[in-house]
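User: Sequence recovery, please. Input:
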C-alpha cells in the first residue's frame, strides 16, 4: 500500500458517522466545549486566549456567509447541518436554508432548535444524505455549503456531483474542509507513530473522506464535476487556537489512555493530542474552497479561462 515498508499498515473498517456522533465522548465533548456546534471557530492568527468560544464560532459562520456571496432571500442547501447552528446563523442574515443531515438525531435536534427560535419560515430541516439528493430538483438552490462534513463522506466525488446538480446555473458553493499530506506516502521525517495515530483517528471518527483528501484532491474533484472559479483559502492559522485548546484539555487523559492502550475507545481524546501535533508539523490544513457553477451566459472560452484562474 506504500512504497516505504516502515509505514505499512492495514486500514481497519471505518465506523459509521452515526456511531461516531452517538458515542458518549462525542456527545459530551461537543456539548460542553462547543455548545453543540460541530465546527471550528475563527480567530486572528497568533491569538493565545481563545475565549469566548461562541464568538469565534459565529465569526467562522460569518466567514462562510461572506464566502457564499449571495443576497438576502437566496435559497441555500446546508448539506450536513448538524443540530442547525450554521443554518440558523445564515438565516438570521436573510438566507432561506434547506438543512439536511444523515444522522437522525442531528436532524431531529435541528428541527427542534429551528422551531424553538421561531425560524420555520426561513429554515426547513430534516434527514437527508448528500450522496443521494433524488428528492431535490435540478437547479434548486442559489448556493450550497457544507462545513467540515465531507471528511465523513464515503464517496466525495458523488456528493460533489449531487451538489452541482441541485445548484442553479451561476450558483455558488462553499466547502469548509481539511486536507493533508498523503498518509500512505508520508515524508521520511514523519514519525511512524503519528501516521498510525492519524489512521486510527480517521477510522474511529468515520472520516474516509479526510483520509483521501491529499492536498488539491478536492479541488480536482470540483473541477472534474464542472465547477469554475475555484479558490482555496488556508485558514489553518485562524483555527489553531481551538486545536491548541483541544490539546491542552486532552493531553493528561491521553497519557493514561496510551499507557492502558485504550486509544481506540477514546478517539476524540487521541485526536485532540495527535491533531495538534500533526498540525504543528504541517501535516494537515483547514481550507475554505469556493466555486461557481457555470451560468448560461458563460461561453466555452469564459469557462476555460475561469478554470485557468483557479487559485490555491
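Assistant: Recovered sequence (312 residues):
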Amino acid at each position: 500500500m506504500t512504497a516505504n515498508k516502515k509505514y505499512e499498515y492495514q486500514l481497519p473498517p471505518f465506523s459509521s458517522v452515526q456511531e461516531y456522533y452517538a458515542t458518549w465522548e462525542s456527545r459530551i465533548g461537543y456539548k460542553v466545549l462547543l455548545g453543540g456546534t460541530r465546527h471550528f471557530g475563527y480567530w486572528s492568527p497568533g491569538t493565545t486566549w481563545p475565549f469566548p468560544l461562541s464568538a469565534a464560532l459565529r465569526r467562522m459562520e460569518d466567514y462562510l456567509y461572506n464566502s457564499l456571496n449571495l443576497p438576502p432571500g437566496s435559497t441555500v442547501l446546508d448539506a450536513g447541518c448538524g443540530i442547525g447552528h450554521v443554518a440558523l446563523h445564515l438565516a438570521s442574515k436573510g438566507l432561506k436554508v434547506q438543512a439536511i443531515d444523515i444522522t437522525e438525531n442531528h436532524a431531529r435536534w435541528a428541527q427542534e432548535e429551528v422551531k424553538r427560535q421561531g425560524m420555520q419560515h426561513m429554515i426547513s430541516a430534516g434527514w437527508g444524505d448528500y450522496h443521494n439528493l433524488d428528492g431535490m430538483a435540478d437547479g434548486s438552490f442559489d448556493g450550497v455549503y457544507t462545513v467540515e462534513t465531507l471528511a465523513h463522506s464515503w464517496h466525495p466525488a458523488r456528493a460533489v456531483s449531487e451538489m452541482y446538480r441541485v445548484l442553479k446555473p451561476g450558483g455558488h458553493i462553499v466547502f469548509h474542509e481539511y486536507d493533508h499530506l498523503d498518509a500512505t506516502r508520508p515524508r521520511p521525517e514523519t514519525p511512524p507513530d503519528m501516521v498510525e495515530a492519524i489512521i486510527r483517528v480517521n477510522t474511529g471518527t468515520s472520516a474516509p473522506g479526510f483520509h483521501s483528501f491529499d492536498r488539491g484532491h478536492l479541488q480536482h474533484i470540483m473541477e472534474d464535476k464542472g465547477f469554475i472559479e475555484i479558490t482555496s483559502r488556508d485558514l489553518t492559522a485562524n483555527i489553531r487556537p481551538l486545536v491548541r485548546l483541544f490539546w491542552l484539555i486532552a493531553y493528561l487523559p491521553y497519557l493514561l489512555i496510551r499507557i492502558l492502550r485504550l486509544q481506540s475507545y477514546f478517539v476524540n481524546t487521541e485526536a485532540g493530542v495527535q491533531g495538534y501535533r500533526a498540525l504543528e508539523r504541517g501535516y494537515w490544513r483547514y481550507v475554505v474552497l469556493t466555486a461557481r457553477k457555470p451560468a448560461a451566459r458563460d461561453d466555452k472560452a469564459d469557462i476555460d479561462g475561469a478554470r485557468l484562474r483557479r487559485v490555491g
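Strands lie at 75-79, 96-101, 123-127, 141-147, 167-180, 228-234, 284-292.
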